[in-house]
Amino acid sequence: MSVPYAKLPGWADYGLIPLINVIVAFAVAGLVVLLVGESPVEAFGYLIEGAFGRGQNIAYTLYYATSFIFTGLAVAVAFHGGLFNIGGEGQAYVGGLGVALIVLSLDTVFPWWVNFPLAILGAALMGALWAFIPAYLQAKRGSHIVITTIMFNFIAASLMVYLLTTVLKPPASMSPQTRTFAEGGQLPKLNFVFDWFGAAVRSSPLNISFLLALVAAFLVWVLIWRTKLGYEIRTQGFSPKAARYAGIGETRIILITMMISGALAGMMALNPVMGDSNRLQLDFVTGAGFVGIAVALMGRSHPAGIIPAAILFGVLYQGGAEIAFMMPSISRDMIIIIQGLVILFAGALEHMFRPSLQAMFASISPRSGAGEAAGQKGA
User: Domain of 220?
Assistant: First the structure.
């Protein structure tokens, strides 16, 4: 006789399972650290110290998390529509172009608080347009969205190389980057917030785009769960046949969903381009588009889960640098392995512990398990 399964409560589905996956990932990572002759406990201590030990460390952690929130939200919106957007890297690249075109034109004319909303629109518009082409190919030609978005990452990278080595490079400059933005194109830092708590921060790249990321997370929640369009997106993602039966236009939803996803990925560029380096340069995305996939998976495609998942990866980036510095035998490649283990258990093996938890909840609440089992039998 098969064991009946109970539906997991929300706190277990969205909180307990990701927590278990992270704990197992860190346990396996500890074995890897042990194999190279270092103490896993000591390495974990350096990880936490590097991420949260001082105000400046926290600021860097949140800076990295800002980019991951944007790309995680981008992937999550596409997930809800039944689409797998792997093009966040390219969409963020082109979003950076949108930011640079606005700022280079207006940074000496208007202050930052005028240029910032315009840069947001530029980043979102360019990211949305870059996502529109794969979306159109999927909706009209049946091209697979995974393949087209991957290819568009390479096209975006090549486009940026051309523009930054020819069109946008200042005269007499050898570096593939734009000129440094004037004061009107530089976002204010959030270092003063740490002063309120007595944690002085000398300098950090954390800027007000972090607040924009939190606002974007709230707006995504409103869109997906509190609007008619969000209901149509979720219906399309859950059952395209049911969506067609309900009169929901498949082409329209695919295009809108991917353009929203692309806009969110494009807005990621605000953080490093306008908030940190104050110029457009090569490789400013640094893999954030791909990390967004893991963040969305770990966060269960819900903004309330994406934010802590993004902070976790911020911890891995910032704290990992501390481990590599304090433990020379653990290189940056080892840190990437640890990040990969988190992605493995949070993504590919996300359902590993679900059956056991469902069986446990069924034994605790046999009525729920029996009722669901009867429903499955009747179906």
Answer: 58-304
Residues 6+ apart with CB under 8 A from 132: 255, 258, 259, 262
Q: How many domains does the chain have?
A: 1
Q: H or E element: which one contains 113? A: helix 112-141
Q: Is 285 in contact with 89 (CB distance < 8 Å)? A: yes
Sign of CA dihedral 130, 132, 219, 242: negative
Please check the confidence at residue 373 and state whether its pLDDT lies above 70. no
Is residue 89 within 8 Å of 156, Cβ to Cβ?
A: yes
Q: Is residue 328 part of a domain?
A: no
Q: Is 261 domain-assigned? A: yes
Domain containing residue 140: CATH number: 1.10.3470
52 domain-assigned: no
CB atoms within 10 A of CB 271: 30
Mean pLDDT score, 282-304: 91
What's the average model confidence in pLDDT over 316-335?
A: 84
Across the chain, mean pLDDT equals 89
Q: For 207, list phi and psi in degrees, rounded to 5.
A: -135, 180
- Find out whether 153 and 89 touch, Cβ atoms under 8 Å: yes
State residue 201's pLDDT score. 83
Residue at 67 is within a domain: yes
What sign for the dihedral angle of Cα 76, 61, 45, 199? negative
- Maximum Cα–Cα distance across the chain: 77
Residues 6+ apart with CB under 8 A from 311: 61, 62, 65
Please list the residues that pair with 177 across neighbouring strands.
281
- Interval 326-339: pLDDT, tens: 888 887 777 788 77
Q: Residue 117 corresponds to which amino acid? A: P
- Among 35-44, 204-213, 233-242, 337-346, the minimum mean pLDDT is found in 337-346
Q: In angstroms, rounded to a whole number, what is the distance separating the alpha carbons of residues 269 and 93?
A: 7
Neighbours of 375 (CB within 10 A): 9
